[in-house]
Design a protein that fits this description.
single chain; about 425 residues; alpha/beta; 7-stranded mixed β-sheet; 12 helices; 16 strands; disordered N terminus
């Protein structure tokens, strides 16, 4: 069985030399083994069983390479573990073909096309960037090979005007932006006395727009609460004091702000300067290492935010050790997303009983039910939306700069639309 344990990742187009790093994610090196970009090859060693080819198209060298590399590492680890357990479909080894899309839509389409047409991939795991996933809708309809990504924009997996899902596009292992907003809205309604919300978001960021608009609709129209201020800014703005002063004068009891870490940092600092001290809510990016990078964490008096997992949970620690030993870098949330996305795909392939792409598409849509993953004990893919079905999230709180876990939360069954 050792002969099929190795996942082959063949170097091509000299992309390895182009792979850099961003943020704190180390670049691949001899001490930090990693999948490399390349085209299809044959597994190392002699095996008389044909491999199951799975593509990975993600950012390994662009401005989203931190999350792209983490997703790729996590997916690779899950595939390696499946091979170590004897392979899939009766002992066939998984063979990964990995391409760097540089967070560019054209590169993404070209890489997906090559993975399908040249390498023979039966399915592809891709980015957490909604723009990247949106760019793949048309080509996936042409090639008819499924993609699993982590896009927060619901439009990446379904036509939101008609309610019809895109046949080959799937969001896995995390709720989309609308679901995230719903979780926070219902949690605040059920567990706090807050009623008057101000919403503050980047109008140039598709994720923050979709998330914020969903929160406004749910908080005001579904739950009957008050929206007393809606303020926006442009992506490159640095001064928020005008908008924050309006929020201060609105009587808002809390701020809903699902924005980026840099924007949140500026918001907190400038709010403090004008004397605005109300709870912050809804910002997934307040997860670690946000507080460590905030110049003065105690300025954040109170916050609630949702996350896919609590990184300190006991059930994640074995995964962390294995991941660190394999890649010589600490895992992050996106590592878990990638790992579980591969496990979802493997489950679907096994349930299909074949690596035929159309059978796999049907299986992702209909056969992923109550699967135990790191992000959920009963993960189910919704065939109506191609997103997770009622996936809950961890609610976290920050009190005077101290982060703590509140607990796992799911929207009440009576409020679920799926």
């Amino acid at each position: 069985m050792k002969r099929i344990l190795t996942i082959v990742l063949v170097l091509s187009m000299l992309l390895l030399t182009a792979c850099g790093s961003a943020g704190t994610q180390p670049s691949p090196s001899a001490s930090n083994p990693a999948p490399t970009s390349g085209n299809s090859g044959t597994p190392s060693g002699n095996t008389d069983k044909e491999p199951v080819v799975i593509g990975i198209v993600n950012d390994l060298s662009g401005n989203r390479s931190v999350s792209g590399t983490a997703i790729t590492y996590g997916a690779t680890l899950a595939a390696e573990e499946a091979n170590a357990a004897g392979g899939i479909l009766g002992g066939r080894p998984i063979k990964l073909v990995v391409y760097d899309n540089k967070n560019d839509s054209t590169e993404t389409i070209n890489a997906y096309t090559r993975a399908v047409d040249v390498d023979g991939a039966c399915a592809v795991i891709t980015s957490d960037a909604s723009s990247i996933c949106l760019s793949l809708i048309e080509i996936s309809n042409e090639k008819k090979v499924s993609l699993i990504g982590m896009p927060s924009d619901p439009r990446a997996t379904m036509n939101t005007e008609t309610g019809v899902p895109h046949p080959y596009m799937f969001l896995a292992t995390q709720p989309n932006a609308v679901q995230q907003a719903a979780i926070m809205a219902y949690y605040l309604k059920e567990n706090t006395d807050l009623k008057k919300a101000a919403v503050f978001y980047d109008q140039g960021n598709a994720y923050t727009v979709v998330n914020s608009e969903a929160f406004i609709k749910i908080w005001r129209d579904e739950l009957g609460m008050d929206i007393v201020a809606i303020e926006t800014y442009n992506t490159n703005d640095q001064d928020y004091k005008t908008q924050l002063t309006k929020i201060k004068n609105s009587g808002a009891e809390f701020l809903y702000a699902p924005n980026t870490p840099a924007q949140l940092t500026m918001t907190i600092q400038q709010a403090t300067q004008i004397g605005l001290d109300i709870p912050y809510t809804g910002a997934l990016d307040m997860a670690d290492p946000f507080l460590a990078n905030l110049p003065d964490p105690t300025l954040l008096t109170k916050a609630w935010f949702q996350s896919v997992v609590w990184l300190q949970d006991d059930h994640l620690q074995d995964f962390f050790k294995t991941y660190k030993a394999r890649f010589n870098v600490d895992p992050q949330v996106k590592s878990i997303n990638g790992y579980d996305a591969m496990r979802v795909l493997i489950h679907a392939i096994e349930a299909a009983g074949t690596d035929d792409p159309e059978a796999i598409r049907y299986s992702i849509e209909n056969n992923v039910k109550d699967v135990k993953l790191l992000v959920s004990d009963h993960y189910t893919q919704d065939p109506k939306t191609h997103a997770p079905l009622n996936q809950g999230m961890i609610i976290n709180s920050i009190d005077k700069g101290v982060l703590s876990r509140v607990g796992f939360y799911e929207i009440p069954e009576s409020a679920r639309t799926n």
